[in-house]
Amino acid sequence: AIRRGVIAIDGPAGAGKSTVAKRVADSLGFAYVDTGAMYRGITLLGMRTGIAPSDSGEKLTELVRSAELKFEAGSGGLRVYLNGEDVTRAIREPDVSRQVSYYARIPSVRQVLTLLQRELAVADGIVMEGRDIGTAVLPDAEHKFFVTATPLERAKRRLKELNQEGYRLDLDQLVREIEERDRIDSSRSVAPLCVAPDAVVIDTTDLTVDEVVAMIVAKVGNT
Ligand code: CDP
Ligand code: CDP
């Protein structure tokens, strides 16, 4: 059965999932869940505790069982706490971005986070965004969108944000990092990044945020 009032938005890094999902949720009065923040939280925890993606199953079990990580759904998005410390900003740092795909391809990590994501989506009226929401987490979602853009455009968007936060990164390097993350996310064995057969694909390369939001809201309103 199809779950009414459930919207899944997937796509690669920098395609505009978070920005668009938040705006769509606001305009419909739906809750918004950014699942990437959860993978970033696990990654930060691993980096801080010295547990690497290549470590033994036992160490990784320790990582995913850790009760030190808390997720709190709020109006501005998901807040992430590590040992009581608010790490909502820290999980966005470029170092975490470079590591996250290696943690996200570990099956036990995906299993634990997928269950948590389904718990956050028990009530209807939700916009959830990530890589595998329409394909694996909420395959019965009423609406599925896959937003994408060229790697160059996505890197430019990310560079602009990072510059505003005071980071100095090179565009070519960012393009390479984004392509590498796409490659790992698309080729992993469990729930890889791919387009769900019933998803509406939106190429946002030449679109503004307003245009993408309007397309999604119109599609949702028409069915
Ligand atoms: O914000 P950005 O697009 O850079 O990435 P994100 O949405 O925060 O996701 C970070 C990483 O988490 C992705 O590159 C994936 O490796 C992983 N991820 C995933 O595997 N499955 C999801 N549903 C969401 C994120
Ligand atoms: O979540 P994801 O990594 O897919 O993207 P994001 O974190 O929402 O970042 C996308 C950035 O590109 C934001 O700074 C948006 O303002 C900008 N942008 C967009 O999202 N959509 C467009 N059509 C054009 C620009």
How would you explain this protein's 3D organization?
There is one protein chain. With 223 residues, the chain is of the alpha/beta class. The protein is built from 9 helices and 8 strands. The strands form 2 sheets. Strands 2-6-1-7-8 form a 5-stranded parallel β-sheet. A 3-stranded antiparallel β-sheet has the order 3-4-5, covered by helices on one side. Helix 1 (17-28) crosses helix 9 (209-221), helix 4 (94-104) runs parallel beside helix 8 and helix 7 crosses helix 8. The longest helix has 17 residues, at 171-187. One cytidine-5'-diphosphate binds at residues 13-14, 18, 35-36, 39-40, 97, 100-101, 104, 130-133, 181, 185.
Unreliable stretches: none
Radius of gyration from the CA trace? 17 Å
The largest beta-sheet arranges its strands as 2-6-1-7-8
Distance between the termini: 16 Å
Task: Lay out the secondary structure.
Layout (H helix, E strand, L loop, with lengths): L2 E8 L6 H12 L2 E4 L1 H14 L7 H9 L3 E6 L2 E6 L2 E2 L7 H11 L2 H14 L5 E5 L2 H5 L3 E8 L2 H14 L6 H17 L12 E4 L5 H13 L2
Parallel strand pairs: 1-6, 1-7, 2-6, 7-8
Antiparallel strand pairs: 3-4, 4-5
Helix pairs in contact: 1-9, 2-4, 4-8, 7-8
One cytidine-5'-diphosphate binds next to helix 1, helix 7 and helix 9.
Short description:
This protein has 223 residues and is of the alpha/beta class.
